[in-house]
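Our consortium's second objective concerns turning raw sequence data into structural hypotheses that experimental partners can test. To show how far this objective has progressed, the report includes one record in full. It was chosen at random from the queue rather than selected for favorable results. The single chain below, 329 residues long, was entered without modification.
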Amino acid sequence: MNRRELLRAAATLPLAHTALANSAFAQAAYPTRNITMIVPFPAGGQADLAARPVAAALERILGKPCIVDNRAGGAGGSIGNAQAARAEPDGYTLLMTLSSLAVLPEADRLFDRPVAYEVSQFAPVARVLADPTLLAVPASAPWKTLQEFVDDAKKRPGQIPYGSSGPYGTLHVAMEMFAASAGIRLLHVPFRGAGPALTALLSGTVQALASAPGTLKQQVEDGKMRVLANWGNERIASFPELPTFKELGYKDVEFYIWAGLFAQAALPAPIMSRLREAMAEGVKAPEVIKTFETAGSPVAYLDAPEFSKFVAADSARLIAAVKKIGKVE
């Protein structure tokens, strides 16, 4: 390098240093404006239950409004997930979504559709809830036990309607997993989210629903519906008398409906660190703990490294289940 080139290179160093400093300052100052937390379902479901108290806690901790945006476009949450995936990786568009995050791209591939998004576009921030799914029926339904339900379904193949949050969403996969194991065929009625599906069960439009304890507990206590089985590996505190599918002989039927916060994979590390700190503090807030425990869904917090491992393991299990179920409507 000659003298002139050396002087020209040296002249750029302060500018480069200033640019780096400004970038670091901008990230350290995060947030400077409102944050949007996309929930890819209507109000009333597990993702919405997780999002609202968490958003309120983040708003208090970060000092800027955190607005829950229900993108209830259907498709099992795929539309809202895809919108979050395409957002700028600046920490101002977050996603509170469910375990179906990994299932939906596989469903697209199964039907040879364009894939709306890939899981690799997201960075897990924190898990908030993780509940086994429960099988609910209206209080007026004739079935008092799971065996009665199965026996009736075998007599009337394809005639018992069940609701879901959309094709290959969490509620759909859980029910088809059970139906395949029991050797029965049910009638799938998809809705735009778990909230509308729950309303349909209460009105008698559908006769069965797989849903999280937090969205069912009050309805069961009010005598509007009953639960027949638990998709978890063990019984849960909010429904201690409810047997698991495994207890009832369905050894391969296990499904959890977890909710977690995600950002984009390219999110700068300083902003990710700030979000992780805020989430770790937020889930300890008394109002958050009380809201979840009242709903029967206690906090099941995992920080980003552990949550990433959890997502990878759970996704592999669910993708295998979807491939086994195959194409269903």
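The partners drew two points from this record. Residues 35-130+256-325 form a domain with the D-Maltodextrin-Binding Protein; domain 2 fold (CATH 3.40.190.150). The first strand starts at residue 35 and ends at 39. Both points have been shared with the crystallography group to help prioritize constructs.
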